[in-house]
Structure formats: C-alpha cells, structure tokens
Amino acid sequence: MDIRIFKNEAEIGKAAGQLFCDAVKENPSCVLGLATGATPVPTYNYMVEEYKAGNVSFKDITTFNLDEYCDLPKEHKNSYYSFMFENLFSKIDVNADNVNFLDGNTDDPEAESARYAEAIASKGGIDVQLLGIGRNGHIGFNEPDAELERFTHLVELTPDTIEANSRFFASEAEVPKHALTMGIHSVFKARKILLLASGKNKAAAINALVKSNITTACPATLLCLHPDVTVICDEDAYSLV
Ligand code: F6R
Asked: If pLDDT is split at 50, 70 and 90, which confidence band does 60 have?
C-alpha cells in the first residue's frame, strides 16, 4: 500500500485529481470508478480546473459509481446521481451516455447487481477506483459486519453512517436507511484503487487501515490484500498512526 500524506484537503484534491488526469491522458477511454461524499469534492474540482484549462479531455471515459441510496428519486438533490452531475459531470466533457449508476429504486437488487457487473465487464473492468472511507472503516457502503458480501447488494446503513450522512439532509430522519453498493470483490476487481481521507474524524479508521489486523469489523483493512492501492490523506486523518 502506497501511503501519501498531505497538509490539507486542497492538496489531497490536487494530488488525486492529477492522478486521475494522468490516467485519462495515458488512456483517454479509461474506465473510472467514482465515489461521492465530501472527501472527493476537491479532487473533482481539480479535474474540472484541468479540463477548463484545456489540459485534459474526459470525452471518451466511462464511469461507474460505487453506490446509490435506495428509495430516493434519482433527481433528488441528495441522490448520488445528482451529486455527480453537480460536482463533476455537468462541468466536464464526459459523454452522459457513458456514466453509469446503480438503480437505487430497483425492486430486484439481485438483477441490478448482475446488470451492473455485466456493464462493468463489457467495458473491460475498472481501471482506477476512487474510494472514501467511513468513520467506521466502511468502503462503499460495505459496513462493518461478521461477513462481507462479495458482489453488489442491498445494504442497511448503520446508525453511524446515517448520522454521518445527515449533514447533507435537512434532518437525520430524511437520510435513506438503505443503499445499493458494490461489494468487496466487485471493488477489488479494479486494477488500481485510490482511497482518500481527510479530517480528524477519519483518524481512527486510517489508523486501523494502516495498522490493525485484517478484519471485517473494519472493511477498509481488507485493502492491504489488493496489489495496487494508494492512500492519499491529510495530516489530520493520519494523526493517530
Ligand atoms: C460514497 C461512499 C462512502 C463515502 C464515505 C465517506 O460513495 O461510498 O463510502 O466515501 O462514507 O464519506 P465522506 O467523504 O462524506 O466523509
């Protein structure tokens, strides 16, 4: 695991954004796995700046988002679909036909899981997968548990995740209680994984990721089994290591 520590989240955004831009310049039709939440926003901002400066074009990339809330219309301002268009897709030249999301409103999660896996495979797999990390060590919405699911599945969000995500909603009661998420094996098929973490509230999770035994009680610890993981975090997130 390659761990890089930066001063603050703006520097994380520059480092991670540059890594994505370099991947796209090297392979203009590459396949990116993307995440939502507060952490990747500076990265997406940097990608937008580079696009506007004429340094990179995203017109041939394909993207797959990692997860999506259930029971939230895709047009809702807090759906991950809306998040991606607001923070990235509407500001760059990505082809809207090539951005892919899980359908959080499906009534058949198993069929949706199979559809997504096939769509990813038909594009040759994910080249670079972006991940955040939950305060409880979740990746995607693979929450700490005695067992972790391999493939894309329906998950009941933990109280900790619901509380953490309530900052984006008017009240905690409005946060969806379920989501569809890519499973651990689906994530691990990516050729390269880039995990970002900023802020003191991620320090315990980063400490566990770097130092603890591998345990499903902290799903991020499994990342040390993947051959190509880069962790980019700030000093606060690294402060307990
Ligand atoms: C989002 C996702 C989650 C977040 C994590 C951290 O697509 O899969 O695992 O990455 O909850 O969220 P933030 O960045 O808001 O702290």
From this structure: very high
The answer to whether the beta carbons of residues 12 and 3 sit under 8 Å apart is: no
Residue nearest to atom 15 of ligand 1 (CA): 37
Contact 180 CB / ligand 1 (< 6 Å): no
Express each pLDDT in 151-210 by its tens digit. Answer: 999 999 999 999 999 999 999 999 999 999 999 999 999 999 999 999 999 999 999 999
Say how many residues make up the chain.
241
pLDDT in tens, 197-230: 999 999 999 999 999 999 999 999 999 999 999 9
Q: Is 235 helix (H, G, I), strand (E, B) or coil?
A: coil
Residues taking part in catalysis: 67, 136, 138, 143
Spacing, Cα 49 to ligand 1 middle (Å): 23
pTM recorded for the entire structure: 0.97
Other beta carbons within 10 angstroms of residue 169's beta carbon come to: 14
**Which of 239, 231, 223, 159 lies closest to 194, judged by CA?**
231
Nearest CA to ligand 1 atom 4: 132
The CB of 35 under 6 Å from ligand 1? The reply is yes
Q: Which atom number of ligand 1 is nearest to the Cα of residue 132?
A: 10
Tokens read off for 151: 């493939």
> Inter-axis angle of helices 9-26 and 41-52, to 10 degrees?
50
